[in-house]
Each structure stands twice: as C-alpha cells, then as structure tokens.
Amino acid sequence: MTTVAELDERIAKCEKILQDDPNSQIFAALAESYRKKGELEKAFRVCQSGLKIHPSYASAHVVMAKINLDRGLYDWAEAEVRTAIDLGGRTRNIELLLSEIYIYKGEFNTAIKLLKQLKETDPHNEQIGRLLEIAQRLPEEQQRITEGVPDPEQTVIATNNTEQEQHPEEEQKVLDTAGVVAEAISIPGVEGALFVNFEGLVVESKWMSSMDEATCGATISEIGNELNEQLINNSFGHIRAVL
C-alpha cells in the first residue's frame, strides 16, 4: 500500500535522479507517482517531456495512457496504448488497461470480448472479473434509462397502500451519487464526503476538510484496491467498505 508520504518520498528521489541525469528513463516512474497522487497536470508534463527524449520507451507510453484516461482523454489514452503495444507487445496489464478505456468510451462489446479472453487464461483475477461485470452492466443500465424502465434491483414496490401505512419504516429510497454524499455529510462529525470511482477520481463531493480532496480520493481508492488484493491472496474474501 503506497501512502501519500511514500509517494512524496518516491517523487523526491526520482526528481533528484532526473536532475542529475536529464536523459534518465526515471521520468516514467516520476510521472506515475504524480498520477497516483492525483497531480495529473504535473504527471502529464513530466511524461510528455520524457517521451520527447525517449519516444520508443513503451512503459512510458503506458503511463501516459493512464494519465490521459484519468484526464478523460479516452481516444488519446487508447492511442498511447496502441503505441506501447507496437513498441513492446501485448501484456495482460496492457490489455486490462485497453479494456478499461473501451468501457469509458462506451465500446462495451469490444471490452467484453477482450475481458472474456483474459478471463479464460486467468479466471480468478479480481480486476478482470470486476471490469467484465461493469462492461456487461452499464449497457443494460443505459438502455433502462433511455427507455424509462426502472432498475429492478433498486426499485422498491409496495404491495398495497395499507402495507405502506402500517410499515412506514420499510419504505426505501434510491439515492444517486449526490444523494449518497449528501446523506454522508449529514452525519454529525463528518467534515467531508467523497464518492470515488475505481481509479480514485472524485465523482461527487461535499468537502470542507483542510485535506486535499483529490489526494484523499486517490488514497482511498488505492487502500481499497490493496486491501482487496491482499484479502483475495489470503482467501479472506472481499472488503465491503473502507472507513
């Protein structure tokens, strides 16, 4: 698990190496550390400058793809992945990244096809399974929204009005991301609430804390991913929440 302090230490070491040797390929590790810390503009500038010196460094193109994915530049992210494949060939991690880009671009069938191929060779991989579930679920949700059909997993149907009156405590409401954050911030003592996606990007927030919002989001996501990985490795199952 990489903490913010560890990222800062890694950044300082990489910057020192790069200062001593401006042609060093350490720029890719520096850019990735900035990305993980949530400082995407710095990450982009470092990686862009390094690629001008080392245009054939495949790993750096992978880092640039991740940076552009986090920035919402999906076509550019895909182009960087293609370049990395041309330079260094296909790996499972590169194909996972490519499938994630397809999901963000809305190319769900392409993502599903690629993820099913990956699952055949690595059936117990948690990340592959999670991405495949997302790629299969999102088109169905989009179709329901387009057609105005309620989600059967989120809709509560009362059998009759009498039952509703007799058991008001059983009534439930469906919250969107803004609603979840609003509910969280209403808890006494809570100074800020973040709704964070799998990549650590903040989707919705009500933030009054002095801590940096983007850094907290990225850190929470990394903690969750690390915990899941360690729990799976030790056969303890999956985490349900991170406090």
The unreliable regions are 155-170
As a whole number of angstroms, the C-alpha radius of gyration is: 21 Å
Structural class: mainly alpha
The amount of helix comes to 55-70%
Arithmetic mean pLDDT? 81
Shape: globular
Distance between the termini: 16 Å
What is the H-and-E element order? HHHHHHHHHHEEH
Walk me through what this model shows.
This protein has 243 residues and is mainly alpha-helical. The protein has 11 helices and 2 strands; from the N terminus they run ααααααααααββα. It has helices at 4-20, 27-37, 40-53, 58-70, 74-88, 92-105, 108-121, 126-147, 161-166, 177-185, 213-233; strands at residues 192-196, 202-207. Strands 1-2 form a two-stranded antiparallel sheet. Helix 5 runs antiparallel to helix 6 and helix 6 runs antiparallel to helix 7 (108-121). The longest helix is centred in the middle third of the chain and has 22 residues, at 126-147. It starts with a helix and ends in a 10-residue tail after the last helix.
Question: Which terms summarize this structure?
Answer:
243 residues, mainly alpha, two-stranded antiparallel sheet, 11 helices, globular
Summarize the structure in short.
By secondary structure, the protein is mainly alpha-helical.
Task: Show the helix and strand layout.
Blueprint: H1 4-20, H2 27-37, H3 40-53, H4 58-70, H5 74-88, H6 92-105, H7 108-121, H8 126-147, H9 161-166, H10 177-185, E1 192-196, E2 202-207, H11 213-233
Antiparallel strand pairs: 1-2
